[in-house]
């Protein structure tokens, strides 16, 4: 793992979250991170820099509306990494617990802001705890790749962020490629179950639980 990967993951996390005024305040620092003289490798850096240019030249309201249209209304662009494998099924509930346990084991407090498998949440955790974070990213690599493909199919500017993310991960094996192909062809399972109990399980990396 490159020492610069946590910095890349933090940048990707910020840009894959819902865009607010806070994002605009981070743009000068993010430009420094993605500068040619910065610490990131070109394959990681260039897609980030391209998205930053898009974000900087798009009115915030338009950027936010595009985010909602992309991630909230396109199933193939779901930001929830376990969705692509399990859909809205009971098995996904167990996958969400897997994320929760990883966050708690590292001492991170859980919030009700987002489900724990949201790509921005997982990346923020990985930036703070690189080893367990990278394990989660690799474990749910199929979800990352299917999200990336969905964003490219939608011609979404956010696809560049997933290109940057995959550049920080090991090369896909033949077995992983075959699995991704099968999932892309079949789609996620469609059994509907309530996931409300897990909505309060998102990690807030960067705000650890207070110790006695």
TrEMBL record:
It comes from Saccharopolyspora thermophila. This is Respiratory nitrate reductase chaperone NarJ. It holds the Pfam family Nitrate_red_del. The keyword Calcium does not apply. Keywords: Nitrate assimilation. InterPro entries: DMSO/NO3_reduct_chaperone, NO3_reductase_chaperone_NarJ, TorD-like_sf. The lineage of its organism: Bacteria, Bacillati, Actinomycetota, Actinomycetes, Pseudonocardiales. It comes from the Bacteria. NCBIfam families: narJ. Coiled coil: none annotated. Residues 183-212 are annotated as: Disordered. Gene3D superfamilies: TorD-like.
């Amino acid at each position: 793992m490159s020492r610069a990967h946590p910095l890349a993951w933090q940048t990707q996390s910020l840009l894959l979250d819902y865009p607010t005024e806070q994002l605009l305040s981070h743009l000068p620092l993010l430009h420094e991170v993605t500068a040619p003289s910065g610490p990131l490798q070109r394959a990681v850096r260039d897609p980030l820099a391209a998205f930053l240019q898009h974000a900087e030249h798009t009115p915030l309201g338009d950027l936010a509306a595009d985010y909602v249209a992309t991630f909230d209304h396109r199933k193939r662009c779901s930001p929830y990494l376990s969705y692509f494998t399990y859909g809205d099924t009971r098995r996904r509930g167990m996958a969400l617990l897997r994320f929760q346990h990883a966050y708690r084991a590292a001492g991170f407090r859980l919030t009700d802001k987002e489900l724990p498998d949201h790509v921005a949440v997982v990346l923020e955790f990985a930036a703070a705890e690189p080893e367990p974070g990278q394990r989660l990213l690799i474990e749910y690599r199929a979800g990352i790749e299917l999200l990336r493909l969905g964003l490219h199919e939608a011609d979404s500017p956010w696809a560049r962020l997933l290109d940057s993310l995959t550049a920080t991960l090991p090369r896909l094996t033949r077995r992983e490629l075959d699995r991704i192909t099968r999932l892309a062809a079949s789609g996620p399972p469609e059994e509907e179950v309530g996931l409300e109990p897990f909505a309060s399980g998102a990690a807030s990396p960067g705000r650890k639980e207070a110790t006695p």
